């Protein structure tokens, strides 16, 4: 079955992709994911590195662990994959193309170039650079593990070449480039190993260490990349663009517009970062002009937004006073552009056909009964649409212009029925006069259908623009939002060779100082706190609700006092456009945003793959996740079997794409919502998604309820996953809010165990009752035996007494996986589980009940033992307690059927000998109960033993059933 990353790459690869590269992705990517996903190529946990290095006896373990963990995370899978794709992409510029054998060597050499990191991650020693035979053996073993045979049947014949390239990819330490040290290669021209193959590998390896597009000018890696290009005789320059701010969809729009503009200069993008792109450019490349690039970006961004606005869903708001236009809409469109588009907006927004506003408006007017009877024939949705169009155009573009009023009355053909003064009757901000005029028009033409009215409004709009232009009645158009956007680009957008020493510090400091004065009326932008002027926004612009508590705003007020800047107003409108989210409604669904960053860098192919995921990722059903995980025997590689992608793009009015089809996500965004009421409901999905995406794709993920990205770039944080203020169940699971690569497996196992236990024992399908997950987690983290208590609770809910064999195995494995990390504590989970298993094993020597019998019968010896411990006086000697309890148990066994006493059933010995062995077995069991369970684990505290009594019995019953199943399986085999 294809993995998620494999599916994404295959579906996004161009049709003309080389068959060898396609074969690599089809055959080698799954084993690469299996072996390399949890190995850190860069970064990683200090504790994990130190532990492995110490086990290997490295005298510099502490220094190395500190050095490695100080870098940001990147797993070995994406390190190899992006390095290979980058090297492959530039190989097309070679003067002498690669042969098929050389392409295979390129793929396998780069795959193994960090074999030492894999070996270290497995806790194995790596050979020194002069130990050629050992290096070849390591490469052979790893090649077999990665199933190279599926990719290239002749790979073992070329093993010396593969090992040579793997060892000498880097030009730093640990190289061994002398041919005499290596076996005679099979390749015809050995010089091709050095140039181009080794240099291609070096280019790819150096590139994936970059964390910022500006590194080609500020870091030595840029010089090294240019050096490799010179060796390869590729006559190209390396240039870049960078946006030093990350907002969201707007940032991605700027990046993609810049890439599109750069095509005119023959700049080819080869490396993608969260903040920009590195290009291969012609040797005499021309630098784009700042002004032209800014104009092009604005045209692209505003064009996309404008096309979405004209559907009427964003940029407009309708309330009890009629239709209103957001300031951003007026700034994006000139009056001559906007008026002809209003009829479509009117049709979408004015849709209250069952409860039209016109009859209510007419009731407010002083009319005769004859007039009311006449107008009632036109008081419906048709009149609403006409009135709202006329009133909106007058309010926004013509004011109290008498020429406009007369023109409109003449157009309607009612100038002899309605006077200009009557059209201007208003009260409380609502114009009643135009409703009067619209009802009069419809009453004159009662046969008009709603679609006929819409066509008429469209014609009036076009005629109105022509008439207004001829008479110079439309005001000149200015766009403050465009000017501020240009200013934003000037401050934050960089293109190599641009000279810009402008800083936003002075502007930002001035804005902050002014906002803090007593006379200041202007708040700081509540989202960016930046240098751009904040302004109040209509609640049709922002996704969050108006601020409810403010000394300037009455409770429940509609006006938003926490203003935002025009840059963030653009971002909010773009999110509405691409996410199909109603303004002000998203906050009700408790969204958690996922910000997906590259781990250092994307190649063009991986960037396209991430775009496909973001566009088509379906809502994950955690019941299905649990099912897949259990079918794969609780292996987290089962995540690959989860259906992550919808079968096809879910098309709707906005096509529900997070980004336009041709756009690439630099910092990808997604979000989750919930119908639940609690914070736990909101965080169940995003916690799982953040962990899963990082495991499956090697990306870095931030999960937060903040609509503002916490970081501008992946280089701003070292960890692979950051959960910002998650629900309390996450930390109660013992998981850090920041996870590194080596933490993934443990975190995912604990999360899946907790989710599965909850779904099995506390849910009521289809209601998962995630609000109670915190209770499940609290019980399991308090005592591992509560896993079995929860299982018993689930059985009682299902009105069953006996668990199935599959349930016994499953819950026992839950407990074993859960306690893996507890072995450092004496009273921890592993000690407790081993003790329970030991107790059951000991009493099964002398007592065995059928699995179909009741819990009381199965647990008879243990129940008797705890009853005696809890009932005898404290001053009784330990040995006396053991002897008394042993006697009580033997008496109880005497009243049981003989087939429940295995030792007594052994006819090979006489009865006295059997009784003696049974008593010795009982004494050994009772000794363990008293000394290890009571005195050691519970410190001789009878109250503590009583508190845990039911937990012990639940755990012992499952242990009994599990041991019986193991014994039965052993006999059968």
Describe this protein's structure.
This protein is of the alpha+beta class and 973 residues long. A 5-stranded mixed sheet has the order 14-13-15-16-17, with helices on one face. A 4-stranded antiparallel sheet has the order 4-5-3-10, with helices on both faces. Strand 6 and strand 7 form a beta hairpin. Helix 14 packs across helix 15. The longest helix is centred in the last third of the chain and has 27 residues. The relative contact order is 0.07.
Secondary structure tally: strands: 17
N-to-C span: 31 Å
- Structural class assignment: alpha+beta
Looking at the chains present, what oligomeric state does this protein adopt? Answer: single chain
Coarse shape:
flat
Proportion of strand residues: 5-15%
**Mean pLDDT over the residues:** 87
Strand order of the largest sheet: 14-13-15-16-17
Low-pLDDT windows of residues: 548-555, 648-656, 823-827
Question: How many helices?
Answer: 43
Compute the gyration radius: what is it? 37 Å
Helix content: 40-55%
Largest sheet: 5 strands, mixed
Helices, strands, pairings?
Elements: H1 4-12, H2 19-27, H3 29-36, E1 40-42, H4 46-55, H5 61-69, E2 74-75, H6 76-91, H7 100-111, H8 115-121, H9 132-145, H10 159-167, H11 191-207, H12 215-218, H13 220-231, E3 237-243, H14 249-262, E4 268-273, E5 276-281, H15 290-309, E6 316-319, E7 322-325, H16 327-332, H17 335-338, H18 342-349, H19 358-363, H20 369-375, H21 381-398, H22 402-412, H23 420-423, E8 426-427, E9 430-431, H24 433-444, H25 450-470, H26 480-492, E10 493-495, H27 505-515, E11 534-535, E12 564-565, H28 566-579, E13 592-597, H29 604-616, H30 622-631, E14 668-672, H31 679-697, E15 700-704, E16 721-723, H32 728-732, E17 738-739, H33 744-761, H34 773-782, H35 786-797, H36 805-818, H37 829-844, H38 855-858, H39 860-871, H40 878-894, H41 911-937, H42 942-947, H43 949-972
Parallel strand pairs: 15-16
Antiparallel strand pairs: 1-2, 3-5, 3-10, 4-5, 6-7, 8-9, 11-12, 13-14, 13-15, 16-17
Helix pairs in contact: 1-29, 4-5, 6-7, 6-11, 7-10, 7-11, 9-10, 11-13, 14-15, 15-26, 18-25, 21-24, 21-25, 30-33, 31-33, 33-34, 35-43, 36-43, 37-41, 37-43, 39-40, 39-41, 40-41
């Amino acid at each position: 079955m294809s993995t998620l990353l494999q599916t994404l790459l295959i579906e996004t690869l161009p049709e003309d992709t080389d068959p060898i590269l396609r074969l690599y992705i089809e055959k080698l990517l799954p084993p690469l994911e299996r072996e390399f996903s949890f190995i850190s190529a860069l970064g990683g946990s200090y504790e994990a590195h130190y532990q492995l290095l110490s086990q290997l006896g490295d005298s510099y373990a502490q220094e190395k662990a500190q050095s490695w963990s100080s870098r940001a995370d990147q797993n070995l899978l994406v390190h190899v994959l992006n390095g290979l794709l980058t090297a492959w992409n530039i190989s097309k510029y070679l003067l002498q193309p690669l042969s098929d054998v050389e392409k295979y060597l390129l793929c396998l050499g780069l795959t193994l170039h960090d074999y030492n990191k894999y070996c270290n991650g497995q806790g194995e020693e790596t050979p020194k650079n002069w130990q050629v035979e050992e290096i070849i053996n390591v490469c052979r073993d790893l090649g077999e593990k990665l199933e190279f045979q599926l990719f290239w049947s002749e790979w073992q014949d070329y093993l010396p070449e593969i090992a040579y390239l793997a060892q000498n990819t880097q030009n730093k330490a640990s190289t061994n480039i002398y041919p005499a040290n290596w076996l005679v290669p099979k390749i015809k021209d050995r010089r091709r190993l050095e140039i181009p193959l080794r240099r291609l590998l070096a280019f790819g390896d150096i590139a994936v260490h970059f964390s910022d597009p500006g590194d080609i000018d500020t870091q030595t890696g840029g010089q090294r990349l240019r050096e490799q290009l010179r060796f390869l005789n590729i006559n190209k320059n390396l240039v870049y663009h960078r946006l030093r701010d990350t907002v969201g969809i707007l940032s991605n729009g700027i990046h993609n517009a810049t890439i599109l503009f750069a095509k005119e200069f023959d700049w080819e993008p080869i490396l993608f970062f969260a903040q920009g792109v590195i290009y291969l450019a012609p040797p005499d490349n021309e630098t784009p002009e700042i002004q032209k690039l800014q104009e092009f970006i604005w045209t692209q961004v505003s064009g996309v937004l404008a096309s979405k606005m004209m559907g009427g869903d964003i940029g407009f708001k309708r309330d009890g006073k009629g239709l209103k236009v957001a300031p951003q809409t007026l700034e994006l469109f000139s009056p001559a552009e906007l008026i002809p588009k209003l009829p479509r907006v009117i049709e979408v927004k004015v849709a209250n056909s069952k409860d039209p506003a016109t009859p209510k408006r007419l009731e407010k007017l002083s009319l005769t009964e004859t007039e009311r009877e006449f107008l009632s024939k036109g008081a419906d949705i048709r009149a609403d649409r006409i009135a709202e169009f006329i009133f909106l155009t007058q309010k926004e573009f013509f004011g109290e212009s008498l020429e406009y009023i007369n023109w409109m009355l003449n157009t309607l053909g009612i100038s002899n029925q309605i006077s200009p003064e009557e059209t201007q009757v208003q009260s409380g901000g609502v114009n009643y006069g135009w409703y009067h005029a619209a009802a009069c028009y419809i009453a004159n033409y009662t046969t008009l259908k709603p679609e006929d009215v819409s066509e008429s409004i469209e014609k009036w709009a076009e005629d109105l623009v022509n008439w207004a232009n001829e008479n110079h009645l439309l005001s000149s158009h200015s766009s403050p939002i465009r000017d501020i956007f240009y200013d934003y680009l000037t401050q934050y957008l960089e293109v190599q060779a641009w000279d810009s020493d402008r800083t936003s510090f002075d502007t930002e400091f001035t804005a902050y100082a002014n906002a803090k004065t007593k006379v200041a009326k202007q708040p700081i932008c509540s989202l960016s706190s930046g240098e751009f002027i904040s302004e109040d926004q209509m609640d049709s612009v922002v996704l969050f609700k108006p601020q409810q508590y403010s000394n300037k705003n009455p409770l429940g007020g509609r006006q938003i006092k926490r203003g935002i800047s025009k840059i963030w107003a653009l971002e909010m409108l773009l999110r509405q456009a691409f996410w199909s989210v109603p303004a002000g409604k998203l906050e009700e669904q408790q969204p958690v945003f996922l910000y997906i960053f590259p781990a250092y860098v994307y190649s063009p192919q991986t960037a396209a793959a991430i775009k496909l995921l973001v566009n088509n990722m379906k809502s994950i059903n955690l019941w299905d996740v649990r099912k897949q995980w259990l079918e794969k025997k609780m292996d987290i590689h089962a995540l690959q079997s989860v259906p992550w992608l919808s079968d096809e793009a879910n098309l709707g009015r906005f096509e529900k794409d997070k980004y336009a089809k041709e756009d690439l996500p630099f910092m990808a965004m997604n979000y989750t919502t919930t119908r639940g009421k609690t914070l736990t409901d909101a965080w169940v999905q995003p916690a799982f998604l953040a962990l899963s995406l990082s495991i499956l794709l090697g990306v870095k993920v931030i999960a937060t309820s903040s609509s503002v990205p916490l970081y501008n770039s992946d280089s701003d944080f070292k960890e692979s996953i950051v959960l910002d203020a998650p629900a309390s169940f996450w930390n109660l699971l013992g998981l850090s809010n920041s996870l590194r690569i080596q933490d993934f497996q443990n975190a995912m196992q604990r999360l899946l165990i907790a989710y599965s236990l909850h779904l099995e024992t506390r849910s009521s399908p289809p209601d998962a009752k995630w609000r109670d997950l915190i209770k499940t987690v609290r019980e399991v983290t308090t005592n591992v035996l509560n896993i079995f208590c929860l299982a018993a609770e689930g059985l009682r809910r299902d009105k069953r007494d006996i668990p199935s064999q599959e349930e016994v195995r499953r819950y026992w494995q839950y407990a074993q996986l859960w306690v893996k990390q507890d072995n450092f504590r004496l009273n921890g989970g592993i000690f407790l589980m081993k003790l329970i298993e030991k107790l059951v094993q000991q009493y099964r020597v002398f007592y065995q009940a059928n699995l179909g019998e009741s819990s009381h019968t199965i647990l008879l010896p243990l129940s008797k033992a705890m009853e005696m411990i809890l009932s005898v006086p404290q001053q009784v000697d330990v040995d006396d307690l053991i002897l008394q309890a042993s006697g009580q148990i033997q008496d109880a066994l005497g009243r049981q059927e003989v087939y429940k006493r295995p030792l007594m059933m052994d006819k090979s010995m006489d009865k006295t000998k059997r009784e003696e062995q049974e008593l010795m077995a009982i004494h050994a069991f009772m000794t363990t109960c008293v000394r290890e369970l009571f005195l050691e684990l519970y410190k001789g505290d009878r109250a503590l033993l009583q508190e845990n009594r039911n937990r012990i019995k639940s755990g012992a019953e499952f242990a009994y059933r599990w041991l019986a199943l193991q014994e039965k399986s052993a006999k059968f085999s």
